């Protein structure tokens, strides 16, 4: 017999938690389903554990920069100890999240959910009937479509390594590959990045070029025109041969680990969406209207990486906010729409690259009369104090209104300062107002008046 609910949420990460807990608090009968440990990508396989590891690499990089300038001795990463520290964050989380659901009276199902009708899901043979369904299943690694794809590790695998391999090849030159490459290099590995064109196309390319140049400066092999065509495994040694590039540019890289960093797609391939009359676009994203409601099955909503909309970004804060919007629309009817203005994005390399709003190119393509400030900040106090050699900033201001419409930072504390510009963009704060603000000093944020 089917079990009936007011709401079933597929996924227990940032996008699914709020609608599940909020609807339960409103008296609804709610169930959650996940085929992975409860908690979602960010807490278990993404942002949080990654930043724990990157934090240690940042300490060692800072130490190395300061040797001979007041700091002596050696600092290095003890990978097993660092991973044990990381697991102190991730290991307890699934049980705590599931206990919180259970305490709230939310039914928990472990397993893969697929549609058996417009209002029906099947999980490990159990049938769930729901008045509403929220799809918040996140994303999965993009299929590579190459021979030997089965030998390629995922970012989840990398974050669970008990020992760091000596030679690592990353497929792709995006967020994941760059962040993990900086981490692995600081931890003592030999690293190569294999891409197929422009890295980080959504970021200002002047800053990306500076980051790539610095990445090479610290000894990472960055090959931007070397698409991976095959991966072979040497059964005798357990090592790999990565075939990359074509024609005269073809090369073979020997590696102890090959990691997928070539992008992700909405995790809907196994959802049986057609059986639920849930339309997907060609990328597998749930087709939703302005209220994050399925365009073909009105009882279904979607939030987070599984529902890509114009202006949205596959980021945890966006997923969390979309979950809150879905909750509001479930409880009060469709009245709340997502607002993607001023959403910052950060690549947690060392140093970090941060961006919010329009790039100069995008602003000019829209016909905006812009005032652009671009500066090398390596000798500014914030970067010089920590001997950061890769600092650069570019800000874009609408000349007619004096409103900040874009900011792009590479350097010390960029991940924090970008939030000042995000606030300015979202709430229309003028550049003159940013200059008038009295900032705590000396902090990285006190550089803001000089950036506009």
How would you describe the overall organization of this protein?
- The structure is a single chain.
- The model has no long low-confidence stretch (mean pLDDT about 95).
- The N and C termini lie far apart (about 65 Å).
- It is built from 14 helices and 21 strands.
- α1 packs parallel to α9, α3 runs antiparallel to α4 and α3 packs across α7.
- It is of the alpha/beta class.
- Helix content is about 30%, strand content about 25%.
- The strands form five sheets. Strands 1, 2, 3, 4, 5, 6 and 16 form a seven-stranded mixed sheet that branches. A five-stranded antiparallel sheet has the order 17-18-21-20-19, sandwiched between helices.
- The protein folds into three domains: about 170 residues, FAD/NAD(P)-binding domain (3-Layer(bba) Sandwich), CATH 3.50.50.60; about 110 residues, 3-Layer(bba) Sandwich (FAD/NAD(P)-binding domain), CATH 3.50.50.60; about 110 residues, Enolase-like, domain 1 (2-Layer Sandwich).
């Amino acid at each position: 017999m089917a079990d009936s609910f007011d709401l079933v949420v597929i996924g227990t990460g940032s996008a699914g938690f709020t609608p599940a807990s909020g609807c339960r608090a409103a008296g609804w009968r709610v169930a959650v389903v996940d085929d992975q440990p409860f908690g979602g990508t960010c807490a278990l396989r993404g942002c949080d554990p990654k930043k724990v590891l990157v934090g240690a690499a940042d300490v060692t990089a800072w130490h190395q920069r300061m040797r001979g300038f007041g700091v002596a001795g050696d600092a290095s990463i003890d990978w097993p100890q660092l991973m044990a520290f990381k697991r102190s964050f991730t290991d307890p989380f699934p049980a705590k999240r599931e206990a919180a659901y259970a305490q709230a009276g939310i039914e928990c199902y472990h397993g893969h959910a697929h549609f058996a009708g417009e209002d029906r899901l099947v999980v490990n043979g159990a049938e769930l009937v729901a008045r509403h369904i929220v799809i918040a299943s996140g994303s999965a690694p993009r299929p590579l479509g190459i021979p030997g794809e089965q030998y390629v590790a995922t970012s989840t695998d990398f974050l669970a390594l008990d020992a760091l391999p000596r030679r690592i090849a990353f497929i792709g030159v995006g967020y994941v590959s760059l962040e993990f490459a900086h981490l692995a290099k600081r931890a003592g590995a030999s690293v190569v990045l294999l891409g197929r064109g422009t890295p980080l196309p959504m970021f200002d390319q002047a800053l990306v070029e500076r980051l790539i140049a610095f990445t090479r400066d610290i000894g990472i092999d960055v090959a931007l025109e070397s698409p991976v065509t095959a991966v072979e495994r040497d059964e005798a040694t357990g090592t790999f041969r990565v075939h990359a590039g074509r024609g005269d540019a073809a090369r073979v890289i020997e590696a102890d680990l090959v990691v997928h960093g070539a992008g992700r797609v909405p995790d809907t391939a196994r959802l049986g969406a057609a059986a639920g009359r849930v339309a997907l676009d060609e990328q597998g994203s749930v087709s939703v209207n302005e209220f994050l409601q399925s365009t073909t099955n009105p009882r279904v909503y979607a939030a987070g990486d599984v529902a890509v909309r114009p202006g949205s970004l596959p980021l945890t804060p966006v997923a969390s906010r979309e979950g809150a919007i879905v909750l509001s629309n479930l409880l009060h009817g469709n009245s709340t729409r997502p607002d993607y203005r001023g959403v910052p994005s950060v690549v947690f390399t060392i140093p970090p690259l941060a961006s919010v709003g329009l790039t100069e190119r995008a602003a000019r393509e829209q016909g905006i009369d812009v005032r652009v400030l671009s500066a090398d900040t390596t000798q500014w106090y914030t970067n010089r104090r920590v001997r950061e050699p890769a600092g650069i900033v570019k800000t874009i201001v609408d000349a007619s209104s004096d409103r900040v419409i874009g900011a792009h930072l590479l350097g010390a504390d960029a991940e924090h300062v970008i939030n000042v510009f995000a606030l300015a963009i979202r709430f229309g704060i003028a550049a003159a107002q940013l200059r008038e603000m009295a900032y705590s000093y000396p902090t990285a944020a006190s550089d803001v008046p000089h950036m506009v």
